[in-house]
Each structure stands twice: as structure tokens, then as C-alpha cells.
């Protein structure tokens, strides 16, 4: 294992140090040549009203990744019309790099539990390796029962590696990461209350949020 290109997507509203640390740990543990941060244009599973303009979220991601070795911001989902389906993103990268290059798609453990609801999710398994990112107190194992029911017949468990292997040769594995209790929801709420977000986001992102007045007009929680 090693080499290849990773995909680490999200709404990134705003991108914060929790996102960046998780992305770095995936890049390092998987031995990736490059990890692409992919802001979603229209996240199909995000129903929260008032998601920031994609241009702001892209720019914050660019500022956060600037100068970070191995990180690249990819605007592929912003360039596409319609919802940001992950299968389309993975296909776009596969078309770009060809069949031989390893692709790693990172997804959170909680999100992977809803994988069966994703658009054309069965098509993702043969296109890339999937790394399921987990933090305490999530269970420390990944079992065949964690694979969506319709996909389970195509998988076998490798006891030596702890990987679930798809008939295509691609794998689904678990990666434990450092638990940083930071959320974009909390950051937006702090800005709305005119509280500091220093040390929760990179300084350039903090400056961008203040410069453009992001999140100021959100209802401040009691």
C-alpha cells in the first residue's frame, strides 16, 4: 500500500483545524502523494439553510491549504451543475489518473453508516479504496456488517490486514485519527455571538471570515 491520490471532501463552512488534522493523518498513514480537499457545491445530504456561497468556502479552503505539502484544493464539484455526488467526483479523478493509480476516498464513520443512501454508492467500491475515519468513542473495528447490505456479497474480510476487500481488489479500511472537538457549527455560532474563533481555524481563514462578514447575521444561540 502507498502512493496515489486522496479525496477528502466536505462542506467546509468553514474549514477548520479538525478537518485539516484529519486530512493530514489520512495523507500520512496512507502514504499518499497528494490529498485533494474538495469543497461540495450542493451537498445532497446537507439540508441546513443558508450554507455559505461556494466561492467563499472554496477560498477559505484554498487559504487553509496554502503552502501545505501534499495538499491540493480541487474545485471539481463547484464546476459541475447540480448536486455534488461523490461518485461523480471519484469518476472524474479516475478518468484523470487512469486505471493504475491508487485513489483513496476518505469518509467519516458516521457518514459511512449512511453510505447506502448515497447516489450510485455501489459504483464507488470498484473505483477506489475507501478509508473510514474514526475518532473516539467510535468502535475500533470495521466488520463486514458495516458494509451496506446490497454490497456485502462482493466483500471478504482479510484478517491479516483488517481490510474488507471488494471483488475488484479495492479495499475498505478503518483509520483512527486524533479527536479534535471542533465543529463548523460551533465556529459559526461563535462568530454570530462575536466571540473569538482563534486557534479553531487557520489565521488566514479567520481573517477571511471577518473581512467578508461571514456568519455575522446568523441567529446567535442563547
* Strand line-up in the sheet with most strands: 3-2-1-4-5-8-7-6
> Can you name the CATH architecture?
3-Layer(aba) Sandwich
Q: What is the CATH H-level superfamily?
A: HUPs
**Count of distinct structural domains:** 1
> In CATH's first tier, which class applies?
Alpha Beta
The tally of beta strands, per DSSP, is 8
- Tell the overall outline: globular
Mean pLDDT: 93
Residue fraction in strands: 15-25%
> What's the end-to-end separation, in Å?
49 Å
Q: Low-confidence parts lasting 5 or more residues at pLDDT below 50?
A: none
CATH topology: Rossmann fold
What about the largest sheet?
Answer: 8 strands, mixed
Radius of gyration: 18 Å
Helical percent range? Answer: 25-40%
Q: What is the H-and-E element order?
A: EHEHEHEHEEEEHH
Structural class estimated from helices and strands: alpha/beta
Amino acid at each position: 500500500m502507498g502512493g496515489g491520490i486522496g479525496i477528502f471532501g466536505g462542506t467546509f463552512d468553514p474549514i477548520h483545524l479538525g478537518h485539516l488534522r484529519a486530512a493530514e493523518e489520512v495523507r500520512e498513514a496512507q502514504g499518499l502523494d497528494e490529498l485533494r480537499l474538495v469543497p461540495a457545491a450542493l451537498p445532497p445530504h446537507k439540508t441546513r439553510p443558508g450554507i455559505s456561497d461556494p466561492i467563499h468556502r472554496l477560498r477559505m479552503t484554498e487559504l487553509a491549504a496554502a503552502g501545505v505539502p501534499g495538499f491540493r484544493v480541487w474545485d471539481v464539484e463547484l464546476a459541475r451543475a447540480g448536486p455534488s455526488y461523490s461518485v461523480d467526483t471519484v469518476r472524474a479523478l479516475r478518468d484523470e489518473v487512469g486505471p493504475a493509480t491508487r485513489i483513496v476516498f476518505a469518509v467519516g464513520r458516521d457518514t459511512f453508516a449512511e453510505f447506502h443512501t448515497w447516489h450510485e454508492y455501489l459504483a464507488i467500491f470498484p473505483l477506489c479504496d475507501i478509508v473510514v475515519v474514526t475518532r473516539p468513542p467510535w468502535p475500533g473495528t470495521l466488520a463486514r456488517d458495516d458494509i451496506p447490505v446490497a454490497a456485502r456479497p462482493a466483500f471478504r474480510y482479510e484478517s491479516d490486514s483488517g481490510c474488507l476487500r471488494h471483488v475488484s481488489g479495492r479495499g475498505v479500511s478503518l483509520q483512527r485519527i486524533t479527536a479534535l472537538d471542533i465543529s463548523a457549527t460551533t465556529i459559526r455560532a461563535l462568530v454570530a455571538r462575536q466571540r473569538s474563533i482563534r486557534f479553531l481555524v487557520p489565521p488566514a481563514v479567520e481573517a477571511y471570515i471577518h473581512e467578508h462578514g461571514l456568519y455575522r447575521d446568523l441567529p446567535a444561540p442563547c
